[in-house]
Amino acid sequence: MPIGPIRVLIADGHPIVLAGLRSVLADHPGIQIIGEAGDGLEVIEKSAQLGPDVVLMDLKLPKLDGLAVLRSIQGRGQRSKVILFASPEYKDDFVEAMKLGCSGVVLRDTPTQLIEKSILKVHAGEIWLDSNTTAAVMRHFASPVEFPPPAHTNGKAPRERSQLSQREREIIILIAQGYKNKEIAEKMFITEQTVKNHLHNVFDKLGVSDRLELALYAIHNSLHLRA
Q1: Pick the CATH number of 6-135 from 3.40.50.720, 3.60.20.10, 3.40.50.2300, 3.40.50.150
Q2: Distance CA 137, CA 73 (A)
Q3: Residue 207 has pLDDT above 90, yes or no
Q4: Element (DSSP H or E) covering residue 122
Q5: How many beta carbons lie within 10 A of that of residue 67, not counting itself?
Q6: Per the confidence metrics, is the pTM higher than 0.85?
């Protein structure tokens, strides 16, 4: 990985918000603002020209909204990671954004230090969602599907993994729906300790470290869409 600051393009339809983001991020030694945009069309143009590592943009941009920008970036095969800067009332759009390859959502009332942290985490290959947003997103991915073993996760190197069992797939589905261990045990007529044992095996097979990472992996890789 090249050494240097994370190159960030910021975008918002309100100049005062752009000024605020610029002020917040300017002092971070690991982040460099390489451009600003005031509408969706400008984001597409500047992201193509500048090739930012991360695009931090308002969901409701003038001329072209954030979802349309995401579709364009995905369609062009650009490698920029996108973080949406949005209000919580648009949580239904967050779901669509994750389907389109969005790497994170930062709420507009987020503390400034978490804005910086979100950029660092997303650039490192992780997904950034707060707990409330995660719950809202997971509730929309409630279809009973089977999960094939992934080839990679969050930029980690692949390794040999055993096939997931049918019971493990069922547990992944329930985790992605937001169920807790006790609730999973009750639904599956097994003990809570058995659920924990299955989760330990799933974490090892998929190379994830906790249930949140497991749920976000399923969402981000669109496993709910695969038969």
Answers
A1: 3.40.50.2300
A2: 21
A3: no
A4: helix 112-123
A5: 20
A6: no
